[in-house]
Design brief:
By secondary structure, this protein is of the alpha/beta class. It has two domains: 277 residues, Purple Acid Phosphatase, chain A, domain 2, CATH 3.60.21.10; 63 residues, no CATH class. The protein has ten helices and 16 strands.
Length: 421
Amino acid sequence: MKLSVISDTHIGDPESTLVKLDESRNPVDGNNLSRLIEALEKDNDYLIFLGDIMDFAVNDYGDVYRMGAYFFTRLKNEHIAKRFVYIPGNHDYNIWDTIEHQSNVINQINSNQNVRPFKMSVPLLIDDRTGVNDNDRIKLAGVHKHSSEEPYGGMFLDYLIPDNKPGTPGYIPFIIAFPNVYLFTDNESVLMTHGQYLESYWSMTAEVFHIIKDFKQTFSMKEYIAVNFPLCQLGSTGIGQAGPLTATILEAQKDITSGKCVLIRKYILEILEYLVPHKLPKFIRKIIFNAVADSAVKRLRGVRNSDYISDLTSKKDDDAIKRFNDYMDSSIEELRLLEAGSNPASRASAPDTFLFGHTHVPVNASDNKTHKYNGKKIKLLNSGGWLEIQGKTEVTSGGEVFIYESGKGFTSKRITVNKQT
């Protein structure tokens, strides 16, 4: 078995260096697409996309899906992989929401059957251990395998690539799982996920629920995803579809990452002028408003995108450690529930390796980053990102392409992102 893993391509974001729009607004190669294709190599059994592949949080569906179709078609034409595994992140969470609707609502109604509740979590298990039957190498938990040669696929993403239909020559199925992929080998177990739930925003409602309900038990992954569902819905795609507001927020984002904060300071002053009653003398208001704006800008200039790995390792941040451990608890509980009624060699334990994206800070095995969870050292890896760096407050960028081969384990290639021209 051979597979490759990447994340955070952000297709649709104007700063993505893999696909861009030309003057006629047609998708074309970005500066780094050929370098990515070369690094991925050909004829992988699986290419695993670990989230934020298409970016609906900063652009509208029309542009994003056109650019996504171009990207996936290029990968197919280069014979990169036989199957695409898509794990939605926070910028493309709508992919998972749409799959849930297609599977549990639309397909059920079309078949004259009752609508089913969302599954919330559908992990993919990849088993490359010696002695496992080839037909049992992959399992999409809770999803019936097709009777055809390809056990999974046929969902809407397949049709982004022209003429990519089940049963046709060269067909590449999209296998969509969320939020985890578990890989089992003779030497190690690997948990792969996008990683947004390591950030306080995306896991906040789980933490609040524990407090208000005095809930002591470990969430199953399905429960963990369910209680955080409202914030994912709110924060993932709404801004990207908000028309004029989308462009304004992009401008503000660039203003912040550049470190200038000129627009942000202006917006803060205008909001204060609107919200605060005009009872104070104008010159007093001006002094107070300027002080508030200066304080906010100072804090924004000091903001960095956390890589979470340093929070877990060198900084020993208690909140980050708790979020990581909570997520690990729920992942292990998910495996334990999947094991019920079977005895597959005690899979329900902490993984040896945790591979994620989200932060755009690449980390490979030679960086020797580990986190101790319940006495076990877990190797931490990160697949980096493919966005152009715009400002001095942005984290160092670069993509880490991970490649796994049976008997050899993981290797990786670091690609330093070249700016768009």
